[in-house]
Specification:
Sodium/glucose cotransporter, 21 helices, globular, disordered C terminus, transport, Na/solute_symporter
């Protein structure tokens, strides 16, 4: 089937964009402190929490990378199985959600500082910036694909426009406005995906016709990938989720423990519905559009669906991408202001100044994210880099705070440094020549260092102490 642009879809994108902007402006008026901007005043109820968790985690990582790209490039089973790491990660977070909330910190770096000292905070801020600007970069690309489908502008020009939109919205209202728009987007995308699935199956000619148009590997259990290659795609997802600052901030922003538990449970339910449908739709797209960029698979389907269904779906996908970009831009800026600038460059910074500086920094980080789109060849490749930098550099040390109280300051710092250096070294020198994602090397190295250094540095007489410097 020949791919064609559908200009009428832009009106759905514009309409929902106006709704998001209006909602953001309304909620931005409720902001009076930096806590309102970053943690929504710690007032999120279970429904909004469930929606913002789902929208933040799925985002462009799933609808252009993740399940979408895996299904298009390798087949249905690798994509469906990629939901399992997310479920394991959410289950783990569910068990420690009360501890996360009652830690009461704005950033992951603040949590790490309590356990490992101030240098852990500085290192964490650096890792978060390196990871989150990568994640934001493919939100720009995802929105660029949508504008390409709906207006005919080139993906490159669409990416520029998408960057401007996401940066602007991130500056408007922080989490106070992002969370409600996340919730609305989450429910809309669930509806859009459910409505699109049977129609896409019909347009594709039924399951037998769809599979007959694909290589045999696309219906095999591994999709032609080795076990190591599969783990190279699955482990970054798991280890980012286990330590994702955006998720921790949303847990902290919940109104109470009950809201946290119910919101997390709803997140699991939403994920079980959304990610398999994304996988199946991208698989169908591979049959219909065999020569497009993998990141465009799900978005391209909107061009052949009935206008109302395609419009609802593309509007929801736009919202997911935009809100995810907003969230990660906000989170990265927060880390810089709270974990570095406010502690080491301007110690007398006021709450109002924190708010102003965070808003000023968002466009700077947005520009860096845009420049990163020029380095990585595909959305999936930048996604794996960004997830691994964070998952190896932060997650083992962070989880140890809650699950491994014996861990020492030296072990935490050594683990973080090892994860960061191993990831960057492998990404720049070996990932292309070996075809093995850096997570296979860096995450085990970070965990081993964490355990070994703890064994050699733990004070057996006095027991572990928390560092509060």
């Amino acid at each position: 089937m020949e791919f064609a642009n559908q200009p009428i879809l832009i009106w759905f994108v514009i309409g929902y964009g106006i709704f998001m902007l209006a909602l953001g402006v309304v909620y931005s008026k409720k902001i009076s402190t930096s806590e309102d901007f970053i943690l929504a005043g710690k007032s999120l109820g279970p429904i909004v929490l469930m929606g913002t968790l789902l929208a933040t985690w799925v985002g462009s990582g799933s609808v252009t990378g993740g399940q979408n790209s895996l299904a298009y490039s390798f087949g249905i089973w690798p994509a469906l199985m990629s939901t399992v790491p997310s479920l394991i990660g959410i289950g783990t977070i569910f068990l420690i959600s009360s501890k996360i909330k009652h830690y009461g910190k704005y950033t992951v770096a603040e949590i790490l500082e309590v356990k490992y000292g101030r240098w852990a905070s500085v290192l964490a801020a650096l890792i978060i910036i390196l990871a989150f600007v990568g994640i934001v970069s493919y939100q720009f690309q995802g929105l660029g694909f949508i504008l390409n489908i709906s207006t005919g502008v080139s993906p490159e020009m669409g990416t520029i426009i998408g960057a401007v939109i996401i940066i602007f919205l991130a500056c408007v209202g922080g989490l106070m406005s992002v969370a409600p728009t996340d919730a609305a987007s989450a429910f809309l995308v669930i509806i859009g995906l459910i409505l699109a699935l049977p129609i896409a199956l019909s347009v594709g000619g039924g399951w037998s016709e769809i599979t007959s148009n694909l290589p045999d590997t696309h219906t095999s259990f591994t999709g032609g990938l080795t076990f190591i290659q599969l783990m190279g795609y699955y482990l970054p997802t798991l280890f980012l989720l286990l330590g994702d600052q955006n998720i921790y901030q949303r847990m902290t922003a919940a109104g109470n423990d009950k809201s946290t538990k119910l919101g997390t449970a709803g997140w699991i339910l939403g994920l079980v519905i959304v990610t398999p449908i994304i996988s199946i739709l991208a698989f169908i797209s591979r049959s219909l559009f065999p020569d497009i960029e993998p990141g465009m698979a799900l978005i391209a389907l909107t061009s052949i669906l009935p206008v109302a269904i395609g419009g609802i779906l593309i509007a929801a996908l736009t919202a997911f991408i935009v809100t995810t970009g907003n969230s990660y831009l906000l989170s990265a800026a927060t880390s810089v202001i709270y974990d570095f600038f406010g502690k080491y460059m301007k110690k007398d910074i006021t709450d109002h100044q924190k708010l102003v500086y965070t808003r000023v920094l968002i466009p700077v980080l947005g520009i860096i994210s845009f420049l990163l789109t020029m380095y990585f060849p595909t959305i999936l490749s930048v996604q794996m880099y960004a997830y691994t930098v964070y998952g190896a550099g932060i997650t083992p040390a962070l989880l140890a705070v809650f699950l491994f109280p014996q861990v020492t300051k030296q072990a935490g710092l050594a683990s973080m440094g090892t994860g960061l250096v191993a990831t960057l070294f492998w990404e720049f020198f070996y990932v292309q020549s070996t075809g093995i994602n850096s997570v296979i090397i860096s995450v085990p190295a970070a965990i081993i260092v964490l355990i070994v250094v703890t064994l050699f540095t733990q004070d057996k007489n006095q027991g572990p102490k928390e560092v509060t410097e």
